[in-house]
Design a protein that fits this description.
By secondary structure, the chain is mainly α. Helix content is 81%, strand content 0%. It has helices at residues 2-22, 29-49, 55-76, 84-103.
Amino acid sequence: MAWIVLIASAVLEAVWATALGMSQGFRRPAPTVVFAVAMTLSMAGLAYAMTSLPTGTAYAVWVGIGAVLTVLIAAARGQERLTPLRAALLAGLIGFVVGLKAVS
């Protein structure tokens, strides 16, 4: 269960990071609310996962998945360019996250 919560929390990390950028310094109310709710739920899920998973592993997985999804969202929205090299590096990052799960 901790792994499922951790992955859901990592997805929420990408949501709050994207909403933070869209909030324009907290000047836009809707993205600011999405940011606050998603960040609270993401942190709560990470905290829950850390009760049964090693802190370093949980944090690395949370950050890795969140970072990759944030880049993919930005690329899908046309805000970042996803080159083949960047895609390969992101795939490598996900591979390392899967490796952490495999050895935990």
